[in-house]
Amino acid sequence: MAQTVKTLGPTPVGSKPFISKWSSRYRGATVQDLEPPAALSLNPTDPISLALISAFEREYTHLTVVDAGTRALLGYIAIPALQAQLDSGRVRPDDPLSQAMARFERKGRKYRVISMDTPLEELEEFFEGGPQKQEFAVVTDEDRRFVLGVATRSDLEEFVKRRPA
Q: Who's near 114: CB < 8 A, 6+ residues apart?
């Protein structure tokens, strides 16, 4: 069964502005400075076993799912959640990804573009600033035509650990 994920929207009027806890360490850094690995996108008809093998080989925790014809971003697979679905018997390795993927909810929501040029303060706000915490961000080009990579909350935390205060 596919899940639906609500994307982070604009900050409601009257809410507190987001305050970065690590902005002093970013010093103008952008998502590109995280050096996110190239995205691996699969199709909804691909078997779950392909997602597991591909993620294991590359040590990825999230894979994007795109339409086979248009390459439009449809959703994602979180490997820990996929493994839990397999362990519980909800899905099998030969089932299509469409049965296990989380779909992006688009209607009535403004998509927040995260590109290689996005400042890390904005990425941190994307992860921490909304009502629903985000574990990863799909990194696209400015026009949202191509999926370039995936940046995770842990990528940002590791960057901060490597940067002196």
A: 31, 122, 123, 126, 137, 138, 139, 140, 151
What are the tokens at 3? 């899940």
Q: Which residues pair with 78 in a beta bridge?
A: 62
Q: What is the pLDDT of residues 94-149, one digit of tens each?
A: 999 999 999 987 766 666 789 999 999 999 988 887 667 788 899 988 887 788 99
Q: What are 64's strand-pairing partners? A: 41, 76
79-88 and 48-58 are packed helices; what angle lies between their axes, rounded to 10 degrees?
A: 140
**Alpha-carbon torsion, ordered 78, 51, 155, 150, to 10 deg:** -90
Helix H or strand E segment including 159 = helix 153-162
Tell me, yes or no, if the pTM score tops 0.90: no
> Which tokens in the block code for residue 34?
């995280």
